[in-house]
Specification:
By secondary structure, the chain is α/β, with parallel strands linked by helices. It is 48% helix and 14% strand. The longest helix has 20 residues. The chain starts with a helix and ends with a strand.
């Protein structure tokens, strides 16, 4: 049995049936793979095409398969329909072998027949446009409807059709290297890279890049995430609160943007606070104090204490779905409504923790109004002690901006900057 196929199946089974996170599982087993690139493609590709694959299987089977067999069929059909480099007969044989691996040899014939039918079948999209788009781009139908309503047809299709972005965006740790020095390091390692317009580099991830990461010379941070930090416009002497900080990337970048600031980085769970401490240690960010705090509950000890509060709120994550394709699994509109209630509480508390004349930056990595414009708009209507202030970032804005995922490396982020009056 092909080891990478088996590893991919093991990961996908945990993601689909146990709700595990694909990126964490993949990181844990990459070292065991014969072909890291192939394993990554099998896992992320199958997740990325999940709705498409479920539709295909519905046309191949009289009744919906269950459990582990369903996972095997998804993996097999993904390879058959979306990976031309692998021989069809080898894929079928490997998937049949997996039925023995999962102790279901009695279903080997079913898997064999279904996959052979998939090879021969020319799948046709549904006639209904929105349902067809859901299948074509593997986006939940309820989200297709939301995007059509909020962005209109052309823009909605553009958002859904944005391709996966295979390159990582890295930036140098300014405590250890300048951008010029990092560029020289990358050149000496004979790595292909491209300068971004946001102070970093686009590069293909590999062992040399991961080694630079482990040494704290570079870190992975998307351009959109860096723009959030730039919107903060921190200055020396600032007392900063990062309310929802884990794993700590934005707090660490803020600590580099001004040399003499104090940052309190919070998260609700101790394990996540440990992640912040680990990040700070790797990047030698000694001016960050990581603590456990529930940002949705008002802490009277913090009222009016901070010059800047970053409220990078938990969200649906639909703006980064192309990097984390399991984000679409098991989410409904009710989840968005529940998140918006938390986001509203967080932003209110963020304002309360800010000094008069201080600033609040609210951000999410999603693209729905319910988590973005509506939250800030509601706050502005209800409170007369805050107003929007233009952000000093290389994007036109009037104090807020909705970034959409594109093919040039940007993720879908919302950023708003408020000043407390």
């Amino acid at each position: 049995m092909n080891k990478d196929f088996r590893l991919a199946y093991d990961i996908l089974d945990k993601v689909f049936r146990e709700g595990a996170y694909s990126n964490i599982l993949l990181t844990e087993v990459l070292g065991k793979a014969d072909n890291r690139s192939l394993l990554t493609k099998l896992v992320y590709g199958t997740l990325e095409k999940n709705i498409t694959l479920e539709y295909y299987i519905s046309l191949l089977c009289n009744s919906k398969p269950t459990g582990k067999i369903y996972v095997i069929l998804k993996l097999g059909i993904f390879m058959l329909k979306f990976m031309d480099s692998l021989p069809a007969h080898a894929i079928v044989n490997e998937m049949v072998s997996l039925t023995t691996y999962i102790r279901k040899p009695n279903l080997a014939g079913f898997v064999n027949a279904t996959l052979h039918n998939a090879i021969e079948k020319d799948f046709v999209l549904p006639k209904d446009e929105k349902l067809a788009l859901s299948v074509q781009y593997s986006v939940p139908l309820w989200l297709v409807n939301c995007l059509f309503k909020q962005y209109k047809r052309e823009k909605a299709i553009s958002i859904m059709s944005t391709e996966s972005f295979d390159l990582e965006h890295i930036r140098g740790n300014s405590k250890k290297v300048t951008n010029q020095e990092l560029e020289k390091i990358l050149t000496n390692l004979k790595l292909d890279f491209t300068k971004s317009n946001y102070g970093g580099f686009f590069i293909k991830n590999n062992g040399e890049v991961r080694d630079l990461f482990d040494k704290g010379i570079i870190t992975y941070q998307s351009p959109s995430s860096m723009l959030v930090c730039n919107a903060c416009s921190v200055k020396n002497g600032d007392n900063v609160l990062d309310m929802c900080s884990s794993p700590g990337g934005k707090a660490v970048y803020l600590s580099e943007l001004a040399s003499n600031i104090k940052i309190t980085a919070c998260d609700i769970y101790p394990a996540r606070v440990d992640k912040i401490k680990e990040y700070c240690g790797r990047m030698n960010a000694s001016n960050i104090n990581a603590v456990v705090m529930d940002g949705s509950r008002e802490n009277k000890d913090l009222l009016g204490k901070f010059d800047l509060v970053l409220c990078d709120s938990p969200c649906s994550g639909f703006g980064v779905a192309r990097k984390k394709p399991d984000i679409y699994l098991n989410k409904s509109y009710k989840d968005i409504e529940a998140l918006s209630e938390i986001q509203y509480k967080l932003l209110n508390n963020a304002i309360n923790y800010t000094k008069t004349g201080g600033h609040i930056v609210y951000s999410t990595c999603t693209i729905l109004r319910e988590e973005n414009y509506n939250i800030v708009g509601k706050i502005l209507k209800e409170r007369n002690d805050v107003k929007l202030e233009r952000m000093d970032i290389p994007c036109e804005n009037e104090g807020f901006i909705q970034l959409l995922p594109d093919n040039n490396g940007l993720d879908g982020f919302f950023i708003a900057r408020l000043i407390k009056c």
